[in-house]
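U., I forgot to send this yesterday:
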Amino acid sequence: RNTSSSVESEVELDSETAEALASLGYIALSTPDGVADRSYQDLPDPKDKIQIYDQVSDANALIGEGKFQQAEQSLTAVLQADPSATFANHALGTVYSKMGDHRKAVRAYEKASAAYPRNALIRFNMGSSYLRLRDWAKAEEAFGKVLEIDPSHFRARGNLTTLWMQKGRFQEALTASEQILEKHENYEVALFNAGLASAALGLPMKALGYLERAERVNPENPLTLEYLAQIYGQMGSRQKAQEYLARAQELRQRGRVR
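Result:
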């Protein structure tokens, strides 16, 4: 028995790695009709591109180390040398996002998404940058696409509830947040949104329950503390309100704003 071929047949690559390798000519991807895409065989010598893939991998390591400017320089050089290395745009978008330049990030993510339209992670990161830019329509579209690809992606659903809060769709946001919490009980975004939605719907005790759970998950989110202070103040519990407000102010002074 050929053991090496047996091992190869059992190895599974994640979709992004598989697509990146396919663009370099190392594997055949299955198309929707089940026929293997072997168009890469028309490339002059795809193995010559392995250096590019290594450079992108090195850039991802730099991102992990927080060396964003070095990673940006490396990825920009890759794309200038070979514009067809579109998988590098996702990493470049991540660099810009980490640097806080979300306009550049979405441009890079859009290019990556055009090349890999079924990649949920690219869509999610793109939606997150649109959310930072307060472009609600494009953020909602991106997160909706993520859920089309992967209906179990609770973080995309959580970000959608944030968008619904912005639009005043409080009941929808509360329902969706509670559905997320059924499976992910300590997911801070869902707890926070459920608390705010409950408060907006005139349910202060329910709001306190969710926000206090969110505070236990992340005691250093000043926004949660400020909303707790506001609700306790409205309910006449001045001492509780002052305690939460003092903690929130201390965190902001220490620069720990999320």
